[in-house]
Each structure stands twice: as C-alpha cells, then as structure tokens.
Amino acid sequence: MSVIMGYKAKDKIYLAADNKLSTPEGEIICDNEKKIIVVNNNLAVAFAGYYKNQILFEQGIKLAQSDKGLTVGDVLAHLRIMYLLFELNRNKEYAKEALGVDSSFIVVGKSKNNECCMYAMSYLNGKLEKPTLTDAVLFPPSDLDLTTCAHIY
C-alpha cells in the first residue's frame, strides 16, 4: 500500500514516499515510518513493499558505509545481493516473507562518474527486475491502478 516517487530536474533530484507502514495483509503498523533511507550525502533509497527489507537494507548498508565512496551502482549491487541471499535461504522464514511480497525501490545519487542519476528497481512476481535508469518514476500503491493515482489530487 506504499507509494514512492522520484523526479530528476535539471539540477536536483526529488524523492518522496508516504509514511504508512502496513503488513502484507493491510494491517497498519504505524503512521510515521521513514521510507527514504539516506545512505550518505550523495545517496538515498526509497522503499515500497515489504517493510522488513528496508530494515535489512539499512543494517547491511551500515556495514558498507565505512567506504564513504559508495555510489548508486554500489547500492543497486547491495539490493541484488540481498535478494540473492533471500533466494539462497528461501527455506528460512525471513526469506520466505521477503520473497512472498512485491517490493519497489528508487535509488538516487551520484554514479561512479560523479553524475546525478536515478534508478527504479522492483521485485515482482518472484523476480528481481533489472534496474532502469530514469528521470521520473512513480510506484503507486499495489491496491490502486495508475489512473486512479493520477487523479487523487
């Protein structure tokens, strides 16, 4: 039921997310969860989907932060490795939960060439999709279609 969006303007990248946290069954856990993780001064990730993935990401990226030179590519690799570990441990409860829920991510920040960029990436129907370089992206709540979201204002 999350919504995340990103927009790359000429000199800035905007990243936004709702703050409601719920279970896959729709039970609300809290109304003030930060779904955007600031990795460092040049990187941030927005999360939608299984909320425990965000927690696991934060724990793992903290270990990698000793290297202050992290780039968007490093964060995308971290997400891929996280899902590979889920697959390798698919018989464990945490992995079953993570692999049982669709999730989406927007990664923004500096590339290894020091350019600002934004990538969209999703885990849908049991498959981690290849990251897509984009200037604008919206992941609507899973229980709404894009047309409904566009007319919410």
Polypeptide structure, described:
- The radius of gyration is 15 Å and the shape is globular.
- The model has no long low-confidence stretch (mean pLDDT 86).
- The chain has 153 residues and is of the alpha+beta class.
- Helix 1 (51-64) crosses helix 2 (72-88) and helix 2 crosses helix 3.
- The chain contains 4 helices and 11 strands; from the N terminus they run ββββββαααβββββα.
- 26% of the residues are buried.
- Strands 5, 6, 7, 8, 9 and 10 form a 6-stranded antiparallel beta sheet that branches.
Q: What proportion of the residues form beta strands (DSSP E)?
A: 25-35%
| C-alpha Rg (nearest Å) | 15 Å
Number of strands: 11
Low-confidence stretches: none
Structural class: alpha+beta
N-C termini distance: 17 Å
List the helices and strands and how they pair.
Elements lengths: L3 E5 L4 E5 L3 E2 L5 E3 L5 E5 L2 E6 L2 H14 L7 H17 L4 H7 L3 E8 L5 E9 L2 E2 L3 E2 L2 E4 L6 H5 L3
Antiparallel strand pairs: 1-2, 1-11, 3-4, 5-6, 6-7, 7-8, 8-9, 8-10
Helix pairs in contact: 1-2, 2-3
Could you name the key traits of this structure?
153 residues; alpha+beta; 6-stranded antiparallel sheet; 3-stranded antiparallel sheet; 4 helices; globular
